[in-house]
Amino acid sequence: MKTAHLFLAYLSLLTLCLCVCPSRAATSEAEVLMRWKSSLSSSASLESWSVNNISNHCRWIGIRCNDEGSVSGIDLPVAGLAGTLDLFHFTSLLNLTTFNLSGNYLNGSIPAALGNLTSLTLLDLSANLFSGGIPPEIGCLTELRYLSFSNNYMVGEIPYQIGNMRKVRFLDLGSNHFETPDWSRFPTFPFLTHLNLHYNELNLEFPHFITTCLNLTFLDLSVNTFTGQIPESLFTNLLKLEYLDLSINGFQGPLSTNITNLSKLKGLLLGDNYFSGNILDTVSLIPSLQILELYNNSLIGEIPPSIGLLTNLRTLALGMNRFNSSIPRELGLCNKLTDLDLSRNSLSGPLPPSLSNLGNLSLLDLSYNSLTGEILTSFITSWRKLIALEIEDNEFSGELPSEIGLLTNLNYLFLYNNSFSGTIPPEIGNLQNLSALYLFTNNFSGGEQHPTRDRKPTKYVEAGPFNQ
Questions:
Q1: This prediction's pTM
Q2: Could you give the strand order of the β-sheet that contains 153-157, starting from the edge strand earlier in sequence?
Q3: What value, to the nearest 5°, has the Cα angle with vertex 116 and ends 113 and 121?
Q4: Distances in whole angstroms, Cα of residue 198 to Cα of each of 122, 195, 202
Q5: Is residue 460 very low, low, confident or very high in pLDDT (cuts 50, 70, 90)?
Q6: Domain ranges of the chain
Q7: Fold assignment, 374-468
Q8: Is beta strand 63-65 parallel, antiparallel or unpaired with respect to 71-75?
Q9: pLDDT tens figures, 1-40
Q10: Closest CA to 457 of 433, 439, 438
Q11: Contact (Cβ atoms closer than 8 angstroms) between residue 126 and residue 101
Q12: Checking phi first, is residue 406 left (phi over 0); if not, alpha (psi -120 to 50) or beta?
């Protein structure tokens, strides 16, 4: 009988423990969060985190709990938090699935103990002041779908243990100081759709593992010092790409004819590299393109008339190359263009009248070419949205249309080093938003005129000397 009573007592104690322990665990989690809050130098947004409200911690700002009352999410983006993660007790919060502290002022290193949060599916520590390296323990977070350390001051090699995160879909390590790892130790990421390694200190050749990530839609390797040619496997494997940014690197070679395989591309940014050869007509077979940037390379020959097939283009940047053709009239078919840069080439001939169809332009830069002819009134009346008109250092002639005064959104008007003649239209005085006006080295007469006398001061005005 005594044994039976002891057994019943044990069952009662066990039942009590099962009822009480989760509550105690929850209280412990709240205490852990309070200790971390107290370590922060700025935490005004965490006013609801209070010892007087510790039993209601699931209602604290930025805290989400699961059905058992355990903390499963910490979401505090742009909360004005300053301090470190040194006193964040990760091992007491093992049920976390989301951890978002982006856009704060947190500094110091990323603790290795972060690797204990093996249930995490989202980790976002972007836009802070973190330094140091990525701890190899990051490889323990095998459930992660979203990882961002972007916009910090982190250093060192990207740990190959990231390759353990086979479920990751979004990986952003951009805008840090990461160095090149042994890319051969990185496997394929079968679910990865977004990869950003922008603005780091990565060099050597294109990382091969990237070309095996067949679900990529976004790839940004810009502002590094990668070299060599782009592997053909990028153009044959990554058929889902919508955005490709390899600008400001040391890539070289001709543009691949297989680029047409990337038929879903909306943004192709290859500027500031060492690409050579011609712009292939095949580029025009990607009708979804909205951004095409090939500036500052060594491309030669003509701007192909087939460029006019890219009717969805918003940005076309071909400046600082060696193009030596005229501007094709078919460019006027790209009437969604807002930014057009053909500067610093060897383009010649007059502007085709079809450019008057480009009524959405906000930036037009044709400077430093050998373009001739007059600036037609139809151009000026169509380009009413222009913010910057830069046509300096060409061979334009004729009088400047008085309709120039209709371009009231202009901030920058650069007409110098041409052969414009006649008087400076007084209507320039209507351009109240001008920050810089350069008219010198032309054949304007009436150099004593002051067309800007009745308008607010312009920061930079150089209207002479003129050839009279």
A1: 0.91
A2: 82-83, 105-108, 129-132, 153-157, 177-179
A3: 120
A4: 21, 9, 9
A5: low
A6: 374-468
A7: 3.80.10
A8: antiparallel
A9: 444 444 434 433 333 333 333 444 555 999 999 999 999 9
A10: 433
A11: no
A12: alpha
